[in-house]
Structures are given as C-alpha cells and as structure tokens.
Amino acid sequence: MNSTTTAPSEKESIWKVIFASSAGTLIEWYDFYIFGSLATIISGLFFPQGNPTIALLSTRATFATGFIVRPFGALFFGRMGDIIGRKYTFLMTLLIMGLSTTMIGLLPTYEQIGALAPILLLILRLLQGLAMGGEYGGAATYVSEHAPHNRRGFFTAFIQTTASLGLFVSLGVILATRTSVGEDAFKEWGWRIPFLLSIVLVGMSFMIRRKLQESPLFAKMKASGKAAVNPLRESFMNPENRRLVILALFGLTAGQGVVFYTGQFYALYFLQTVLKLNFATASQIIAVAILLGTPSFVLFGALSDRMSRKKIIMLGCFLAAVLYFPIYHGMVAAAGFDVNNPDAGSPNPNIAKLTFLVWVQVMFVGMVYGPIAAFLVELFPTRVRYTSMSLPYHIGNGVFGGLVPFIGTALVAQTGYIYAGLYFPVAIAVMTLIVGMIWIKDPGNKHFLE
To answer: The CATH number of the domain where 350 resides is what?
Structure first.
C-alpha cells in the first residue's frame, strides 16, 4: 500500500465520506443533547415534584447515565467494528439512537403512569448512551482510513465539529419550537417535537450512509485474513496496547472531555441555574459562541498536521485549568449578578460579553478536541483500532466529561459557592496535563498501516 495515503485518488471521495459520516454523527449528537438541553422541563414531567432541586438533579443523573454507559457501547460496537466492519456498525448505532430518541418523545409523564415514567426514561437514555459509544469510534476510524496521512488531522476534525454542531442544532430546534407553539404549550406538549423530529433526520442520514463502501484499509486487511479475531483480548490483554489505552485515557481524553463539556454544557447550566438567565437568552449565548468557535476545531486539526498534536491538546488543557475561574468570575460580572442576593438573578446581562466569554471556552474546546481523533486513530493499529480508541475516548468523555454538569451542579448546591462546579474540570485538566506531558508521545504514522 502507498504509505502516503489510504484514500482513493478522487478528491471528491474523501468529501463524500466526510459528509456522510459527519451527517450521521451530527444527528446522533443532536439526539443525545436535546435531553440535556430540556433538563429543566423534563425534571418537572418525569420525576415527583415537591423539591425542584432534587428533581433537577435526578434528571441530570439520568442524563449522566447516558454518558456512563458509553464505554460499554464502545466495547460492544468497537468489537463488532473490528470484526465485521466500520460501515455496518455505525449504521446500527444510528438506528438505535434514532429510535430511542423518538420513543422519549412518546413517553407518558410521571403524572400519567407514575414511577414507571422515570424508569422508561432511564432505559431509553441508556440505549442512547450505548449507541453513542459505538458511533464516534466508527466515524472517526472510517474517515481516518480514507484520508491522506499528511492531512488526517484536517479531515478527521470535521467529525469533531459534529458534537458542537449537534448541540447547536438541538438548541436551534428547541428555540424554534418554543417560539412557534408558545411557552405554555411547549412545556405541556411541544417539548416532544424535537425528540420526534429525530426519526426523520435519522432516516435521511441512514439512506446516505448505506450507500458508502467499507473502509479500504479495513477491507484489504480483512481480505488478507489479518482482521482481529478477538479485538477485546488484543486491545486489553496485550501489555503494550493496554498501556496505550490507559495513557490515552488519563493523558488525553479525560482532560479533553472535561474541557469539552465545561465549555459548552456546564456553561449553559451555569447561565441558567446560577445566573438565572431564561432558557432563550442562555441558549442564544451558547449557540452563537458555538457557531463562532466551531471552525477552530478544523483550524487546530489542520494545525496538528504541521506540528505536534500533543502540544496543541496540552496547551488547551493548560489554558482551561488556568483561566476557568477568571472566565466564570467575568461571566458573573457581565451578567450583573449579585452574589449577595442570588435570588434576584441577572436583571441586566451584557449578552455580548457573556457570548465572548463562552466563545473563549469553545476555543479551548477546539484546541483539545480538533486534533484528538487523528491522535487516537494513529495511536492504535488497524486491526484493533475501533475497539482500542473507543474505550478511552468514551470513558474520558462519557464519564469524566459527562459528569461535569452533574458534579458541578451538586457541588454548587452543597457548598453554596457558585464557582465550586469548576473544581472538578480544573483538577482533571491538570491531571491530564501532567500525564500527557510526561508519558504521551505523538505516534505519527507508526501504527496506522499495521
């Protein structure tokens, strides 16, 4: 095989691959995020009332379970992807995600069926998490195995944009629906529309993806009889590969995960629950910041093709750890929030300054997230790539990152200190910075064609 590329010669081929992979991944992130974006409404519909804080924490705990089970989805679907193929596997994850999301839109509420409502909600959330656990590794691996090696960071960065764009689309659909049906109707039944819309989006994405061919690198490996027979054993029982998995988790993806979710999700929760901005205003701030900041994912992904991917990711963790507290102090000041009278909320927020401060956080996200897919796919050999990269990615993002909003909300509620929610992401970012700088090395093309 030509060592300079694993892609077809036609320029259009890689863009077709990126479009099909990204479209499906964006829809899956949309599905995953609308639950979190509607947490305050869901808490009032699917959990017993009486203590709004407990209901909200219960909803966020249910939201967090979708992240916690992602590593199990990574193991199950990663194994399937390394044995059967990349394309078939991420078609399955797309369908599971879409059907689960649609069913949430059809669920009866706590008032209608009692305790069964949160149980069914939890089951569907678990299915969402399992599907997401298999989706990202498949899409990132599929794109990387089509891309020229000297532009792998640039092309895989388009997959990275889908997570933030999925949040952007989810906020846009929710805002449009709320505006169309009115606030009262939205709280009563209109919240179901974003969930039900998923079946249409997933159907369109499925039709696009099913026309793709299998990854040429995987197809050649399987035809030669070199495909993994037991990817789980090879990934985690082989001492060298197991060491890489552990280092990838603590020296890359844990820090990347907390930076990702702090800069977008925790920022949204902070605006709503601490600064007490209304949903529309908070969502508009986050949406504009994401729209302006997401191109940085591609920028830093492309930059990582020319310089060390590791240094860019470590710089993002460093800046986040050092600047989060000043940024959130700035957000409080920009919101006009009186810490001595928190019930008054933010009567006259400076929207432009708040948007800028969230945008800065999204830039940190671009630094850690833009190059991460290329880094991970290069770290592991082809025969176990899907399995090996998926597990540390989804523990880092699903457990460390996904718990940021829940832990942050709980710490603020417990301590009464509005900045307490930043302790966790700062600590994890520092840990990743230390481990990554000492023990992680840029793999380059060492394992990629194996």
So the answer is: 1.20.1250.20
The parent domain of residue 286 ranges over 11-439
Q: How far apart are CA 363 and CA 361, in angstroms?
A: 5
Domain count for the chain, please give it: 1
State how far the Cα of 448 lies from the Cα of 347, in Å rounded to an integer: 54
Q: Do 94 and 28 meet the contact criterion of CB atoms below 8 Å apart?
A: yes
Does 449 reside within a domain? no
264 exposure class (CB count in 10 Å sphere: 0-12, 13-18, 19+): buried
Strand partners, 120: none
DSSP-derived secondary structure letter, 211: T
pLDDT digits 0-9 by tens, 229-264:
889 998 899 999 999 999 999 999 999 999 999 999
Residue 266 sits at the vertex; the CA angle it makes with 265 and 270, to the nearest 5 degrees, is 125
CA 147, 169, 410: angle at the middle one, nearest 5?
Answer: 105
22-40 pLDDT, tens digit per residue, is 887 888 788 778 887 787 7
Query: What tokens appear for 275 in the block?
Result: 């600064």
